[in-house]
Write a structure and sequence with these properties.
Strand content: 25-35%
Largest sheet: 6 strands, antiparallel
Order of helices and strands: HHHEEEEEEEEEEEEEEEHEEEHEEEEEH
Number of helices: 6
Shape: globular
Strand order of the largest sheet: 13-18-11-10-9-21
Distance between the termini: 16 Å
Helix content: under 10%
């Protein structure tokens, strides 16, 4: 993250960085918001932007025969494309099962695939988005040929690491990819989250965790690592951001999964000459150097065992809020959440009141498994209102930021491939 020193001077230095208080005689909210807008590089951004590329709904599936045993809801037709993703699934019993799901806002139709008790696919039914309920029998499914094996839904999460300080907004300080599935077909109390730390382009050490939104610590029996290992295994220093436990309780009783104490350690396992974690960029540049490396991403699967199957069924991507934990230069500890939870104080007692009129997000949820994030220092998009110049990896991002109702699939079309990793 390249710091803009002129901007930092305008932000009244230490007053901005104090995590627990903000003295009015030192902090100027108008100057702060101007500095954020300046660094964001998109003039005339939509003031009511919600930064949301997805929508949520739920459909209750009932069966009217004894053949349909299990169903999967997909974002595309798996008899036509190999790119279909499973967005929800369940065994189907007499009373029906509620399938909750989060899909790209551009998805207006889904596909329900049925299976019999022997695992044979029965075909598909087209289901309009937000259909409240559906009764199905084996005869309702259309089977045009062989099914192409679908994958489980995966989202990409990209971050600036230093809220509330405005940085360069290249959104590659942390890049996570997360997929979700029910690993035990007959046991709907269990959900697997597979988390991949893909990249770290930050100039500071930070930790990360996942807040399970609306789910309490007491709703969960346990969380265990079933594939891979703890991302920060062997961390050599005392902890500041996360506990050593996989599951921890948030300040308001939230369920929180600890990911790592240091992204740099998780990817590089390197210390500097003083014994501190080496601040190196990982997977944000093709040109390697002492301070920029290309390494294998780190993947861990967390198995969450819920006490109630209804809570497990409610685990859509709307409930997954990964967040960064970082320390400012004055010693205050901050959290960087997804936009819907921008001002949450999950683990730290943070006073964010002074920043609530600012509508810029330090993170983005991209409903795409293989989204190509930008290289270090490269913008997703920029717009200069003085000359109308548009620049960046994704022209559509600039259009979407200026009008939240347009270009809502911008992340699928790269404008300048040389700017993305």
């Amino acid at each position: 993250m390249k710091q803009n020193h002129i901007t930092l001077l305008l932000l009244c230095t230490g007053a901005l960085l104090t995590a627990t208080s903000c003295k009015k005689d030192l902090f100027d909210e108008e100057i702060y918001n101007t500095a954020v807008a300046y660094n964001f590089m998109i003039d005339n951004a939509d003031p009511d932007h919600d930064w949301c590329l997805t929508h949520y709904s739920a459909t209750t599936i009932r069966k009217s025969d004894n053949i349909v045993n299990r169903v999967q809801l997909l974002d595309a037709n798996p008899y036509v494309t190999a790119d279909a993703q499973i967005v929800a699934e369940s065994m189907v019993f007499g009373s029906g099962e509620r399938l909750a799901y989060t899909v790209p806002v551009t998805n207006t139709s889904l596909f329900l695939v049925g299976y019999d008790a022997y695992g044979n696919d029965l075909g598909y039914i087209s289901v309009p988005f937000a259909t409240p309920s559906l009764s199905v029998s084996a005869d309702d499914f259309l089977k045009p040929g062989a099914i192409k094996t679908p994958t489980y839904q995966k989202f990409t999460y990209i971050y600036e690491s230093d809220f509330p300080i405005p940085g360069d907004f290249d959104y590659n300080d942390m890049v996570l990819r997360i997929s979700k599935k029910h690993p035990e077909l007959g046991n709907m109390f269990v959900v697997d989250l597979t988390v991949t730390l893909e990249a770290c382009g930050a100039d500071e050490v930070y930790g990360a965790a996942i807040q399970l939104v609306g789910i309490n610590y007491d709703d969960i029996t346990k969380v265990e690592i079933v594939d891979g290992q703890a991302m920060d295994t062997g961390y050599p220093l005392s902890r500041t951001f996360t506990s050593g436990d996989v599951l921890t309780r948030g300040r308001q009783g939230e369920a929180v999964i600890n990911l790592f104490e240091s992204a740099q350690w998780a990817l590089g396992r390197t210390t500097d000459e003083l014994g501190d974690i080496a601040v190196i960029h990982y997977n944000v540049s093709r040109n390697t150097s002492e301070k920029s490396k290309v390494v294998a991403p780190v993947t861990t699967t967390y198995r969450i065992r819920f006490k109630d199957s209804d809570v497990a069924h409610s685990m859509t991507f709307d409930r997954i809020d990964p967040f960064i934990i970082h320390q400012s230069s004055s010693g205050g500890i901050w959290e960087v959440h997804t936009f819907a939870h921008k001002f949450d104080a999950t683990l730290q007692n943070i006073n964010t009141e002074a920043y609530r009129k600012n509508n810029v997000s330090w993170s983005l949820i991209i409903p795409m498994a293989d989204f190509r994030y930008t290289r270090y220092g490269m913008p997703l998009g920029s717009y200069n209102s003085d000359n109308g110049e548009v620049f960046g990896a994704y022209d559509g991002f600039t259009g979407w930021m200026r009008n939240r109702l347009t270009n809502r699939d911008w992340y699928r079309t790269v404008t300048l491939p040389q700017l993305v990793y």
